[in-house]
UniProtKB/TrEMBL annotation, chain A:
Family from the record: Belongs to the DCC1 family.
Pfam families: Dcc1
UniProt KW keywords: DNA replication
Species the sequence originates in: Elaphomyces granulatus
Compositionally biased tracts (Low complexity): 368-377
InterPro entries registered for this protein in UniProt: Dcc1
Gene Ontology terms: cellular component: chromatin; chromosome, centromeric region; Ctf18 RFC-like complex
UniProt-listed GO biological process terms: DNA replication; maintenance of mitotic sister chromatid cohesion
PANTHER family linked to this entry: SISTER CHROMATID COHESION PROTEIN DCC1, SISTER CHROMATID COHESION PROTEIN DCC1-RELATED
Ranges where the record places region Disordered: 361-389
Secretion signal, residue range per the UniProt entry: none
Organismal lineage: Eukaryota, Fungi, Dikarya, Ascomycota, Pezizomycotina
Name of the protein: Sister chromatid cohesion protein Dcc1
From TrEMBL, chain B:
Subcellular location: Nucleus
InterPro entries to which the protein is assigned, alphabetical: Ctf8
Main location: nucleus
Entry's Gene Ontology cellular component terms: Ctf18 RFC-like complex
Family: Belongs to the CTF8 family.
Record protein name field: Sister chromatid cohesion protein Ctf8
GO biological process: DNA replication; mitotic sister chromatid cohesion
Region described as Disordered: 1-25, 129-155
A Pfam family that the UniProt record links to this protein: Ctf8
GO terms for MF: DNA binding
Highest taxon above the source species: Eukaryota
Keywords, sorted A to Z: Cell cycle, DNA replication, DNA-binding, Nucleus
Organism: Elaphomyces granulatus
Length: 389, 182
């Protein structure tokens, strides 16, 4: 055969080999990475003890790839072929020396491609992780805050208002590190849980807390009372500090940390624009409470606090009355069970109602989907069960 | 487990690698020079120890560790002409000679999904930009707390770079065939 027209490239193997991983890119991810200012991505896996927290049975270790807003489950796919990474080499020197002054003449010198790595597997995407909620992982990193400062065991120091933004950020980042979800999802779950950073009274270190339903309810009660006293219309824009001051009116110590108050306001506020990461508007000066969100949240929080299980079910008429009383005057008549999140409540007998927690709802949904998973179109999933046998 | 930062490809860093001219057809060239070659089976290399004559090049002056290349054979794109890069017929035929007497025939394929080549973030010497970025990380942490500073410089270990996005591969899926002496 003729080598006159065909260029012949020397092919070599470089020792030592380098470590490379190949990651298959979805069109969406490719676009993200090819953009002018591509964001950093994160590979996150849950902390080892988080499996219990999510009550996901049979999940093994896994890695999620997180863009700023989305999460994808990765899986490692082994190839029977040898996949090599090759790159040009000048064939006479160590390959990455980087100090070539000589202008190379392509015609005279034999050129070389050299194998620098072999990849036995490729990382591929599973479907985007939308089913798994972020909050159970986040909860794991938070301490339950279940009584206000008036109670003896949780002592609120007056420090709360003085925490700097970066101090809080650091605590949050540390907690988010163990949550296998994107920053946006972490922030959303943080607000969803009304989590806040506060000094841990026992260790005097900063930590993340999540208030119990009854604490949240108390915060809301005080907030509502404050707004009435100061005639602040929660539906219209108000200064968050004004509302806070209305709670402090009676000259007492802070009944609860400022950060807790703030996150509850944020939880109930008109949602920000879709594109904005919530962190960037973490401490809004102004806010207005979103009617629909507020009505639902107050109802569910009340139910969770007072009737968390079937055994503690309460009468619906009583629930409705209390719920209305916890709403701003003009919204009273809008309280209706249809405003509660689907599946968040259940009736016992006809007139008794109780709360179904998010994790229970999740479990039920999972069971429901498991029974239909035999029809899954994903072949890997279908064969997984057989392989294990 | 903590999260690992995966840095997107950086254009300037990739250009910096471009000292060596790339002998591959234009289509297979990437800014960093990296390409993917897939074959059925494995390449058997001579054992490491022993005869120095096996190694054509050994450059041992690099921080004490030596990098050397073992010749395997030759790679050829018989139908490729640099004068006519738009014609893609050449992609159908690639030869890989293993030694002198064995040849594999393969082809160039576009990957259904592009692959990102990921590497653990290198130390200072490899990429100029790696240093700049780690400085940035340090600065961010400066206003946080002193205690974290030490951590962030150490956490460089847990940072990965997407060094290249590769869209084509050279694949040899058939067995090698014997060929005569050139």
């Amino acid at each position: 055969m003729s080598t006159q027209t065909a260029q012949s490239i020397d092919f070599t193997h470089t020792y030592p080999q380098q470590g490379f991983r190949l990651l298959e890119l979805s069109p969406e991810l490719l676009e993200l990475l090819s953009s002018n200012n591509p964001p950093a991505l994160y590979l996150k896996s849950p902390s080892s003890d988080a499996h219990e927290a999510t009550s996901e049975v049979g999940t093994r270790e896994y890695v999620n790839l997180c863009t700023p807003t989305k999460t994808f489950r990765l899986r490692q796919v082994h190839t029977s072929n040898s996949v090599h990474i090759i790159r040009p080499s000048d064939g006479s020197k160590s390959a990455d020396d980087g100090t070539y002054e000589v202008e190379r003449d392509e015609l005279n010198l034999m050129e070389t491609m050299t194998v620098i790595a072999k990849c036995g597997s490729t990382l591929e995407f599973d479907a985007p992780e939308e089913g798994t909620p972020t909050s159970p992982f986040l909860e794991k990193g938070l301490i339950l805050y279940d009584s206000l400062s008036t109670d003896a065991d949780v002592e609120t120091s007056m420090l709360s208002a003085n925490l700097s933004f970066s101090q809080k950020r650091r605590v949050k980042d540390e907690i988010f590190g163990d949550v296998p979800a994107s920053m946006f999802q972490c922030e959303s779950a943080w607000t969803e849980l009304c989590a806040f950073v506060h000094e841990n009274s026992s260790s005097h270190l900063l930590a993340g807390f999540r208030p119990s339903a009854s604490v949240k309810l108390d915060v809301w009660k005080r907030t509502l009372e404050g707004s009435v006293i100061r005639a602040i219309d929660l539906a219209k824009q108000f200064l968050v500090k004004d509302l806070w001051n209305s709670i402090l009116d009676d000259g007492e110590d802070e009944p609860f940390p400022w950060d807790l108050f703030q996150v509850v306001v944020r939880r109930l506020a008109e949602p920000p624009g879709q594109d904005e990461l919530r962190s960037e508007i973490e401490e809004p000066k102004w806010a207005n409470i979103d009617k629909t969100t507020c009505i639902r949240w107050v109802g569910e929080t009340y139910l969770e606090a007072k009737a968390p299980a079937m055994t503690s079910a309460i009468e619906q008429s009583q629930f409705m009355k209390e719920w209305m009383d916890l709403l701003p005057e003009s919204w009273r008549d809008d309280a209706s069970v249809t405003h509660l999140t689907e599946g968040s409540y259940r009736y016992q007998n006809q007139a008794m109602i109780y709360f179904i927690s998010n994790s229970e709802r999740q479990k039920e949904r999972k069971n429901a989907s498991n029974s239909s998973s035999n029809t899954s179109r994903n072949w890997h999933e279908r064969f997984k069960a057989q392989r294990k046998q | 487990m903590p999260s690992v930062r995966l840095h997107p490809p950086v254009a300037s860093r990739r250009d910096a690698q471009n000292h060596i001219s790339n002998p591959l057809p234009q289509l297979l060239q990437t800014p960093s020079g990296l390409a993917i070659l897939e074959l059925q089976g494995t390449i058997n290399l001579p054992p490491l120890v022993g005869d120095d004559a096996n190694w054509t090049n050994s450059d041992s002056n690099r921080d004490g560790d030596s990098t050397f290349e073992t010749p395997i054979g030759k790679l050829m794109f018989p139908d490729y002409s640099p004068l006519n890069p738009d014609d893609t017929k050449w992609m159908k035929r690639v030869y890989l000679y293993i030694g002198k007497y064995q040849r594999m025939t393969g082809e160039v394929k576009k990957l259904a999904k592009p692959l990102a080549a990921i590497q653990r973030r290198q130390g200072r010497r490899e990429f100029g930009l790696a240093r700049d970025q780690s400085v940035q990380v340090m600065e961010e942490s400066d206003d946080r707390d002193q205690g974290l500073k030490g951590e962030s410089s150490e956490s460089d270990i847990d940072e990965l770079d997407i060094v290249e996005i590769i869209k084509f591969k050279i694949i040899f899926s058939s067995r090698p065939e014997p060929v005569g002496i050139e």
